[in-house]
Design brief:
It comes from Seonamhaeicola algicola. The chain is an alpha+beta fold and about 220 residues long. The protein has helices at about 5-15, 30-50, 55-60, 60-75, 135-145, 150-165, 180-185, 205-220, and strands at about 90, 100-110, 115-125, 130, 150, 170-180, 195-200. The structure holds zinc ion.
Length: about 220
């Protein structure tokens, strides 16, 4: 067990330890219904500890709603079974310029405080022999966002998957997002947001990054 100062420090500095989401080997021993039951039980204890009366009509269903929301909605992306099928196609048009998919909604949660991270992802790649259906990029972002996350790791997980699926290093992922744990607690800054950029291949070159940033800056509303 870490001391409390270190716990706060890791949270406020949003330090992440690994590209992979840290999961227990037993992560999927329980099915969704069993997880909902367990979380429901423990969340009712949290509410009781806070002094809330769970016999009140308005509160009695909250532990179940909370548990179902965690397992089926906010954190569905923890389970690899929920990963979207990312079919790719042959690049028949031989399109080999930059393809940019932008303004993809980010709906995530910070793993240090379990509070929302909201914003947008902008992603580009330069196809080699394979192309991907555009909505599949959105689905992949949605999947990785629906885990307890750190923004840096979210960017990397999306990048690495796209590089593998598309069989090219030429991918760039930029995320700009607000963290509720920064705006509503701690420093309580309502306006700041965080931008992360991860890339490989030709995007190591400044000219490619600039072309991407120009497109994003000039066309994103
Ligand atoms: Zn946080």
């Amino acid at each position: 067990m870490m001391n409390k100062d270190l716990i706060e420090n890791i949270g406020d500095n949003h330090i992440s330890s690994n590209v992979n989401t840290p999961l227990l080997p037993t992560a999927f021993d329980k099915n969704d219904d069993e997880k909902i039951k367990t979380i429901q039980h423990h969340f009712s204890k949290i509410m009781e500890t806070l002094g809330l009366d769970l016999t009140d009509d308005s509160l009695s269903g909250t532990p179940y709603r909370f548990a179902k929301m965690y397992v089926k909605e906010l954190f569905y992306g923890l389970n690899p079974e929920n990963k979207p099928k990312l079919s790719v196609f042959e690049n028949k048009y031989s399109y080999n310029k930059m393809l940019v998919e932008q303004n993809i909604t980010i709906d995530s949660s910070c793993e240090h405080h379990f509070l929302p991270i909201t914003g947008h992802a902008h992603i580009a790649y330069i196809p080699k022999d394979k192309v991907i259906g555009l909505s599949k990029i959105n689905r992949l972002v949605d999947y990785y966002a629906h885990r307890p996350q750190v923004q840096e790791r979210l960017s990397l997980q999306i990048l690495k998957d796209l590089q593998t699926i598309l069989n090219t290093e030429d991918v760039i992922v930029m995320i700009a997002a607000k963290h509720l744990c920064v705006s509503s607690r701690g420093i309580k800054d309502k306006d700041s947001f965080t931008t992360t950029i991860e890339y490989g291949g030709c995007f190591e070159k400044k000219a490619y990054r600039n072309e991407f940033l120009n497109i994003v800056n000039n066309t994103t509303k």
